[in-house]
Amino acid sequence: MVGPGTLNLGAFSDTVGTFTLNSGTLDGTGTLIASTYDLNGGLVKANLGAGTLNQLSNTTTLQGTSGALDVNILGGTLALGGSDRLANNATVTVESAGTLDVRVSSDVVENLILNGGTINGSGTLTATIYNLAGGTVNAKLGTGTLNQLSGTTLLNGTSAAHEVNITGGTLALGASARLSVGSAVTLGAGTLDLGAFSDTVGSFTLAGGTLAGTGTLSAASYSLYGGDIHANLGTGTLTQVSGTTNLNGSSAATRVNVNGGTLALGASNRLADSADLRIAGGTLNLGTFSDSVGSFLLDGGILDGSGTLTATTYKLLGGTVNANLGTGSLFQTASNTLLNGKSAADYVNVFGGTLTLGSSNLLSDSSILRVGTGTLDLGAFDDKVNTLRLNKGTIVGTGALTASTYRLNGGTIEADLGKGTLKQLGGRTLFTGSSAARRVKITDGTLDLGKTGLLADKAKVFVSGTAKLDAGAADDVVASYIQEDRGKLTGKGELTVDKFAKLTGGTVSGSLTGPIAVQGDVKVTGDLAGSLKVNRGTLTLKGDAAANTSV
Question: Residue 303, by phi and psi: left (phi above 0), alpha (psi -120 to 50) or beta?
Answer without folding.
Answer: beta
